[in-house]
Amino acid sequence: MGGLLAFMWVLEIFDQSTGGSLDQYGIHARELDGLPEIFTAPLLHGGFEHLLGNTMPFAVLGFIVALGGFARWLGASLIIVIVSGLSAWLLTPANTIVLGASGLIMGWLTYIIARGAFDRRPLPIVVGLAVLLLYGGMLWGVFPSQAGISWQAHLGGAIGGVIAASRIHRRST
């Protein structure tokens, strides 16, 4: 997680020093040629304040997900990035560029919470409840609230996190 965060900070330093040249690699809503940016948008931010606001939850929630192993972290992250990105691409007004890791962060949040329900073991349930208590207020981000904040990516991330938990942790009965 530290390496990914360092990479995002290096990207933002470069982006700021070049007048926002990397922002073009964000999700271009409703443009077919903007779909590949679903995978680059979570690494890019709209300034240092935006990145700073995402840094701590990215580190904490990403680390908790990574404790389950690299394969689970990667699988969950890919599902979340795709669902969040597609939601942002489809639901955001045209001529908008969506940047930031908050859709992924929201997905990790719901993944951690939902994983206990699908896994049915005590530790994931307790961890999920603790994360809900500490970060549950973030869930309000799935509703439209403030201009410039992509509730669409947040909503997609939240849905992606539940899908990832159900796919990765569903027990056969």
UniProtKB/TrEMBL annotation:
List the InterPro entries: Peptidase_S54_rhomboid_dom, Rhomboid-like_sf, Rhomboid_protease_S54
Membrane topology field: Multi-pass membrane protein
MF terms per GO, please? serine-type endopeptidase activity
The cross-references to Pfam families, in alphabetical order and at most eight, read:
Rhomboid
Q: Where in the cell is it found?
A: Membrane
Residue stretches spanning the membrane: 58-91, 97-118, 125-143, 149-168
Keywords of this entry: Hydrolase, Membrane, Protease, Transmembrane, Transmembrane helix
> Which parts of the sequence belong to the Peptidase S54 rhomboid domain?
37-169
Establish whether keyword Metal-binding is in the entry.
no
Q: What is its main location?
A: membrane
Q: Does the keyword Hydrolase apply?
A: yes
Q: Which GO terms describe its biological process?
A: proteolysis
SUPFAM superfamilies from the UniProt entry: Rhomboid-like (SSF144091)
One GO cellular component term of this record is: membrane
Q: What is this protein called?
A: Rhomboid family intramembrane serine protease
Origin species: Microlunatus elymi
